[in-house]
């Protein structure tokens, strides 16, 4: 077991400057929680100096301040490019305090100046109406990680380090978040970190013993047991433990010097000597008391070192003179008169450890990744487009076609290394294996003779954890690079909460002029609900689209391309875009080719449009509109259209295909939304609309409920009916099949119920024949399995 060496690496003078910086950061952290005025305590503390609502979290702040102080030291001493991911959920006051001390905050927000007036603004704004959140949020300079929800810090750190060979990413992991599933899986990220092309990740596991009301699991493990666990994950831990400030500072300095020397050796031997053995990356285990340097006891009960220090250790300060006196004693214990000049600016001793310019943690361009982003070199789509002489004449697997384009993207970015494909063990399954012609799968662990496509320097990343795929890609895109997350549709729900956090981050960032736009986070959802031949009901859930469309409209985009060429067009747009979450749902099974590449571009640019060749209006006002969104629903609508031509030749119908789901929203609610005139031009305002949708039917109703014609809208989609069955039986079980759609038309067009009763009966009989046929043969009816548009 490794502990920090006890020989002094700090001259006494340097130790004094580190302690001064740490005291200043602690003072500013506590001041943000409590003070409304009198920031320098130039007069006795009075109730009116205290905020009326005390919000924030003190418990983790002193430990984070310790890390920030010592990161400053090593960045300055070693001229490092560094980024820190602050995992503990409520470390906002600490990171804001330190960025203000180093000057980054005032440069970003000039009204929060580096003086007494600025300090007062700094204090007032924290967790205050019109101010800043208590978390490390987008508003915080130097941050890429929202501290609101726990568990994602280490995945974000590795994402930031991939393809960033000159970057050190330190990641402070709170012992509360260390109990989460995503964080537990994240320890395996070291098996994917390439010491040649990637930066280094330095995990700092901060154990202060408690969560909001309970002890933490890892803090209660004996040190040797915890050490063995971390070594089992492939790390080489260095332990720093204590509550004596001077000794802890000496030990932390020694520990950082030790681990950074080790990282330098790992990178040098891999890059210059060709060493290929998987390294044991160092890490630090830091144990300090929760609420360290705060009130030791309040009202007769211990606070420092307990869960009571988690949030606000002294409550009711305005109304309790005893608590007010304790707060003043606590704040004055940091001796602010020694740390700040008469004008409120930090004194030279406090700033002695702070690096300069972009080396400061709050000014790192890696934490404002749009500053580093280069346009992704997407190749011409014509190089990969499938030929379409007439609609439905041929078939292709859309994702396989996309895979060829992604292979070229990988080749185009081979030297610059700023594009990655991530997914949970499904690149081959999702028909994207062409990418292996350009790069392999990132892998640093043991390889065996039968392994294929494993590559120490690969840029395809597969691990059976959707959480890690999401976290890696978030860290990667937020630091300015591009990527795509390919996933089975049903299981992308695992990251519902993560994408929620990311969307909120992007929405907030877009309102901050100083944050440059970052590459979009792109999902390709395939192996979708309608084709689960090997899996069945457990793999059938199209609801991720519903979840995403609940979120901020300026950030989210959802696309359902109906064929290979439209998928290429949508992917081209998504990969080039910035500041969005793009969700693309596309099948991997053979699908009819409906549109040429030129037609696909035009159709995708519209987002929703009439397919003249599929309907039979011919200048007439339609009696009914057949709407569709998704590859399987589109095929069923076209099959229904063909049946209508055959059985009801006098019926005028229109076919409208929707690629961009947000087009259904009113223009006032989404940038891509259709105006009233545009919407009713497509769907009419008074004619029946039978809409076949890929997912849950109520989403279409929710998107279109404000439209005048909503009362005439009837939607078919997935309604939780499924099993391991034939492809056509899936649509029959959910009443999305062509026969059911024809019956819906007959039921809803005035006058058809009587006139077309025989046709309706024929359709119902076809459904009954299907039911008997698949149970006798195990395959779909020949008229379905062999159906084409052009016969």
TrEMBL record:
Alphabetized UniProt keyword annotations: Lyase, Thiamine pyrophosphate
SUPFAM superfamilies (UniProt xref): Thiamin diphosphate-binding fold (THDP-binding)
Occurrences of domain Xylulose 5-phosphate/Fructose 6-phosphate phosphoketolase C-terminal (ranges): 588-789
Primary enzyme class: lyase
HAMAP family in the record: Phosphoketolase (MF_01403)
Protein name stated in the entry: Probable phosphoketolase
Xylulose 5-phosphate/Fructose 6-phosphate phosphoketolase N-terminal domain mapped to chain residues: 12-371
Keyword Lyase: yes
Top-level division of the source organism's lineage: Bacteria
Entry-linked Pfam families: XFP (PF03894), XFP_C (PF09363), XFP_N (PF09364)
UniProt cross-references to PANTHER family, sorted A to Z: PHOSPHOKETOLASE-RELATED
Enzyme Commission code: 4.1.2.-
UniProt similarity note: Belongs to the XFP family.
InterPro entries tied to this protein: Phosphoketolase, THDP-binding, Transketo_C/PFOR_II, Xul5P/Fru6P_PKetolase, Xul5P/Fru6P_PKetolase_C, Xul5P/Fru6P_PKetolase_CS, Xul5P/Fru6P_PKetolase_N, Xul5P/Fru6P_PKetolase_ThDP_BS
S-adenosyl-L-methionine as UniProt keyword: no
Source organism (scientific name): Streptomyces fragilis
Cofactor: thiamine diphosphate
């Amino acid at each position: 077991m490794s502990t920090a060496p006890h020989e002094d690496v700090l001259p006494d003078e340097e130790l004094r400057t580190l302690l001064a910086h740490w005291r200043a950061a602690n003072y500013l952290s506590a001041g943000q929680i409590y003070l409304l005025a009198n920031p320098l305590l130039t007069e006795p503390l009075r109730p009116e100096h205290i905020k009326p609502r005390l919000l924030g979290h003190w418990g983790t702040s002193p430990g984070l301040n310790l890390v920030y102080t010592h990161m400053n030291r090593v960045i300055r001493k070693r001229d490092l490019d560094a980024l820190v991911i602050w995992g503990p959920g409520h470390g906002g006051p600490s990171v804001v305090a330190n960025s203000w001390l180093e000057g980054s905050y005032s440069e970003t927000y000039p009204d929060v100046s580096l003086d007494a007036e600025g300090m007062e603004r700094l204090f007032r704004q924290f967790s205050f109406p019109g101010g800043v959140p208590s978390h490390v949020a987008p508003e915080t300079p130097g941050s890429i990680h929202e501290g609101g929800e726990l568990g994602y810090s280490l995945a974000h750190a590795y994402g930031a380090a991939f393809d960033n060979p000159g970057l050190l990413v330190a990641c402070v992991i709170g012992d509360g978040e260390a109990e989460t599933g995503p964080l537990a899986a994240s320890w395996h990220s070291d098996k994917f970190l390439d010491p040649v092309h990637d930066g280094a990740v330095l995990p700092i596991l901060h154990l202060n013993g408690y969560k909001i009301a309970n002890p933490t699991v890892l803090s209660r493990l004996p040190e040797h047991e915890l050490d063995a666990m971390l070594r089992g994950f492939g790390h080489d831990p260095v332990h720093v433990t204590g509550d004596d400030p001077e000794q802890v500072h000496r030990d932390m300095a020694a520990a950082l010097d030790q681990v950074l020397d080790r990282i330098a050796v790992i990178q040098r031997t891999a890059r210059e000597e060709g060493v290929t053995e998987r390294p044991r990356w160092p890490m630090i285990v830091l144990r300090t008391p929760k609420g360290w340097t705060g009130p030791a006891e309040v009202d007769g009960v211990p606070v420092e070192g307990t869960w009571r220090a988690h949030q606000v250790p002294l409550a009711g300060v305005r109304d309790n003179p005893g608590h007010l006196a304790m707060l003043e004693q606590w704040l004055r214990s940091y001796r602010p008169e020694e740390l700040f000049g008469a004008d409120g600016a930090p004194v030279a001793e406090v700033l002695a450890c702070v690096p300069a310019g972009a080396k400061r943690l709050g000014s790192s361009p890696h934490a404002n990744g749009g500053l580093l982003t280069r346009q992704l070199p997407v190749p011409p789509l014509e190089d990969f487009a499938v030929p379409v002489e007439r609609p439905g004449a041929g078939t292709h697997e859309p994702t396989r076609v996309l895979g060829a384009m992604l292979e070229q993207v990988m080749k185009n970015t081979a030297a610059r290394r700023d594009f990655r494909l991530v997914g949970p063990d499904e690149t081959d399954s999702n028909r994207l294996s062409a990418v292996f012609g350009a790069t392999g799968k990132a892998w640093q662990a043991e390889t065996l003779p039968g392994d294929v496509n494993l590559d120490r320097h690969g840029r395809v990343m597969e691990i059976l954890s959707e959480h890690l795929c999401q976290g890696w890609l978030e860290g990667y895109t937020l630091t300015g690079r591009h990527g795509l997350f390919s996933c089975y549709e049903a299981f992308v729900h695992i990251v519902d909460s993560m994408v929620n956090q990311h969307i909120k981050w992007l929405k907030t960032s877009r309102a901050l002029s100083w944050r440059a736009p970052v590459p979009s986070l792109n999902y390709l959802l395939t192996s979708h609900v309608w084709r689960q031949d090997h899996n069945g009901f457990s793999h059938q859930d199209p609801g991720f689209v519903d979840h995403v469309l609940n979120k901020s409209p300026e950030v989210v985009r959802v696309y359902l391309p109906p064929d290979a060429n439209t998928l290429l067009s949508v992917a081209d747009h998504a990969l080039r875009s910035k500041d969005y979450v793009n969700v693309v749902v596309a099948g991997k099974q053979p699908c009819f080719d409906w549109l040429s590449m030129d037609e696909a571009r035009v159709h995708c640019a519209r987002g929703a449009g009439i397919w003249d060749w599929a309907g039979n209006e011919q200048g007439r006002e339609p009696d009914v509109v057949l709407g569709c969104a998704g590859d399987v629903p589109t095929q069923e609508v076209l099959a229904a259209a063909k049946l209508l031509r055959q059985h009801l030749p006098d019926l005028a119908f229109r076919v409208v295909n929707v690629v961009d789901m947000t087009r259904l929203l009113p223009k006032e609610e989404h940038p891509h939304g259709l105006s009233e005139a545009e919407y009713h031009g497509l769907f009419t305002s008074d004619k029946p609309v039978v809409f076949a949708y890929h997912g849950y039917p109520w989403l279409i109703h929710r998107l279109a409920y404000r439209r005048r014609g909503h009362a005439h809208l009837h939607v078919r989609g997935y309604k939780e009916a499924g099993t391991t069955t034939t492809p056509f039986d899936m649509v029959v079980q959910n009443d999305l099949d062509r026969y059911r759609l024809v019956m819906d038309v007959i039921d809803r067009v005035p006058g058809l119920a009587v006139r077309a009763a025989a046709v309706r009966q024929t359709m119902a009989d076809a459904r009954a024949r299907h039911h008997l046929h698949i149970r006798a043969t195990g395959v779909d009816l020949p008229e379905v399995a062999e159906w084409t548009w052009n016969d």
